[in-house]
Amino acid sequence: MKKKAVILFSGGLDSTTCLALAKSEGYDCYALSFDYGQRHNSELNAARKIAKKSNVMQHEVISLSIGQLGGSSLTDKTQTIKDHDDNHVGIPSTYVPARNTIMLSIALGWAEIINAEAIFIGVSSIDYSGYPDCRPEYISKFNELVDLATKKGVEGHVLSIKTPLINLSKADTIKLGDSLGVDYSQTISCYKATDDGLACGKCDSCALRRKGFDEAKLPDTTRYI
Amino acid sequence: MKKKAVILFSGGLDSTTCLALAKSEGYDCYALSFDYGQRHNSELNAARKIAKKSNVMQHEVISLSIGQLGGSSLTDKTQTIKDHDDNHVGIPSTYVPARNTIMLSIALGWAEIINAEAIFIGVSSIDYSGYPDCRPEYISKFNELVDLATKKGVEGHVLSIKTPLINLSKADTIKLGDSLGVDYSQTISCYKATDDGLACGKCDSCALRRKGFDEAKLPDTTRYI
């Protein structure tokens, strides 16, 4: 039987690269997306399309109403998402508290149910160094938790969190995905993407992505407004 | 300003005791419940009533569609929940994989948003020793994760997971709650509770609860069918 992996899959650039990588490593892939009130719902549509095209074994979109707790401009429609500003210091308003911990926990539950041996998450400690839950020491601690958190972990079943992009810049990730044949025109990173999946080109996420293509010296196939 | 706590609050016997305890310790309480497709939705109604009566600062019910991942008779309506059987060995079918990790993660997100310094969870390692995520070593590891997972944790803000029932039997928990004035007739533990909140008296959860009142030598005020 082939080994199984749960892929935290937003339909964005990073997680689509992770999915392609997991496939290339021989995993049967189970894609997991979240509808948590993020504004860019077209991301979920992209996720559905890419998952289907990538022949994943299963794709689940979990509804999770954490937006009602507040704390992020990404889920609070009364807040404005600002355009990218090179001089901005600190955590951006789009930060969703404990998001990676929440998503990894749900992935852990699914991994236990389907007997997966890996969970892929496309975090990078290079581009988002301000996010605590993107750092190697955080992931390493979550891996320790996994061994204690589930029946299978306690019984010695090996399940580990894989972060293949953690030391890659956006440009390196794009080069990796390009070598794996990823079609980035289908992926959506923009915080304010239109319903048709067009990117604004101005938010933090667009700025980072555009710079990545630039530095990778690859054509930016993002569909902008 | 008073110290704040997030209480994982199902409306059951244990979490209601936790809420009463946190209040008695001087916390402003923020109750957090989940609608994750559990069958006993009357539990959520009980949670709403008790939270209101207890004057919590805020009560949030998070929708979380993890039932679609399968793995538990508690969320899968095609499975039957069996009556309690003293001879049953192993993890019961009502086990929801990684549930405590998932709920603690979401509580962690809220705690960061509201600046809480404690999260209360009513797990016991005595009555449910088969559940890996009810053991002290699991909780201790999650506490280590908390320090790495959030911006505030990294900055040294103290937030800790409190498990006041972890070494208590159900009888001890009931005695504790009784001393704090908890009205257990309002709490629902039954896996098959009716819409009106009546307990079946036969499932694992009812059996454990009934035994608890028995051993505590306190009248069982549970409303049975």
What keyword list fits this structure?
7 helices; about 220 residues; Rossmann fold; homodimer; five-stranded parallel sheet; alpha/beta
* Amino- and carboxy-terminal Cα gap of chain A: 45 Å
CATH class of the domain at 4-68 and 93-184 in chain A: Alpha Beta
Return the structural class of chain A.
Answer: alpha/beta
Order of helices and strands of chain A: EHEHEHEHHEHH
Could you say what the CATH architecture of the domain at 4-68 and 93-184 in chain A is? Answer: 3-Layer(aba) Sandwich
**Helical residue percent of chain A?**
25-40%
CATH topology description of the domain at 4-68 and 93-184 in chain A: Rossmann fold
Provide the low-confidence segments of chain A as ranges. none
Count the helices of chain A. How many?
7
- For the biggest β-sheet of chain A, the strand order reads 3-2-1-4-5
CATH superfamily of the domain at 4-68 and 93-184 in chain A, called what?
HUPs
The oligomeric state of the chains shown is homodimer
Biggest β-sheet strands, sense, barrel of chain A: 5 strands, parallel
The average pLDDT value of chain A, as a whole number, equals 89
Largest chain-chain contact? A-B, 42 and 42 residues
- Globular, elongated, flat, extended or rod-shaped: what is the shape of chain A? globular
The rounded Rg of chain A comes to 17 Å
DSSP, total strands of chain A: 5
